[in-house]
Amino acid sequence: MKMTTIISAFALATALVCGSCTEDGPVTNPRQDDTNIEKATGFARGADVSWLTQMESEGRKFFTPGEDRQEMECMQLLRDYCGVNSIRLRVWVNPAEGWNNIDDVVLKARRAESLGLRTMIDFHFSDTWADPGHQEMPEAWKELSFDNLKNAVAQHVSDVLTALKNVNVTPEWVQIGNETTPGMMLPVGSIKENPAQYTALNNSGYDAVKEVFPEAKVIVHLDGGNNQWAYDRMFDALEANGGKYDMIGMSLYPYWAEQQGETGGWMKVADDCIANINHLKQKYNKPVMICEIGMPYDQPEPCKQLIAKMMNAPVEGIFYWEPQAPNGYNDGYNLGCFDNDAPTIALDPFKEK
Questions:
Q1: Which of 69, 111, 219, 343 has its CA 20 to 30 A from that of 245?
Q2: Domain boundaries, the chain
Q3: Cα within 13 Å of Cα(65), Cβ side
Q4: How far apart are the first and last CA of the chain?
Q5: Whole-angstrom distance, CA of residue 210 vs CA of residue 246
Q6: Given pLDDT bands bounded at 50, 70 and 90, which one contains residue 139?
Q7: Quick one: average pLDDT of 262-271?
Q8: Helices (H), the chain
């Protein structure tokens, strides 16, 4: 998600960082867990809820839709009322406020696991947001040699995934970088200036994933799913330099495409994205995942139509980005799909798959 203007404004509650990630540790907003749940398979109907623990620490609660509103833990609400079967969680290296560090990620992943939800882990390789306009090196890595930087990437991936493995969470998908359209950890990993170095950093992460979870599908994720040129540039460079990846990931935000001058409305953006998906599958022989999708919170019907359309595309799944976030959350996010802390109809297609 292109969130260069969004900042984390709240300190991580002590309860989340002190002992909360042990196997028997507490969870925030506790609820009655289901037991002996088998994980879903097939099409991934996903939601990135990385803000969830921060929102809970601020006192936010979530409710079932309709007149007879009932409070419910957010992941369970998404599962039971929206058809979600998968959760995506971002990871930052040394975040200033604590959110999205190892402890926070493991806490949320344990909760997803307890509900039978599949997990995608999204490594940003930054201390804060990583997206096409912001791919900044973690502060602690800025003076490293390139060989040591590759080692730092591998160690970071290994540390996070091992922490998950230690609490019996097995991610199904792992992203090496978030919306790395220009590369990652710029300028060292620039896809334009240093494609071989970008590939080496990617491969360090890939190999580290496979050391801990050999069956996990490793994703390279770009923004602008309708922009074929950007995907050809990235995956041509990876192919030319021995890049390792299992799946192509993309973001699809008609709102952002329109902000950048695209015309023809959301349907044109979606059609161009589907054409790109078909092109990529044929050219690189890799499956495709929509790792992020979203539309403005006050457009639930068009959003529902967009998701239904993309579910008929040849993709492995779709993840909505922070559906539970209210309008204007965290200094400006307006692409959630809850109204009055309850889900709208935007995710209804997930219930029909």
A1: 111
A2: 41-352
A3: 14
A4: 25
A5: 11
A6: very high
A7: 84
A8: 14-17, 52-57, 74-82, 102-114, 146-166, 195-212, 228-240, 254-259, 265-284, 300-311, 329-332
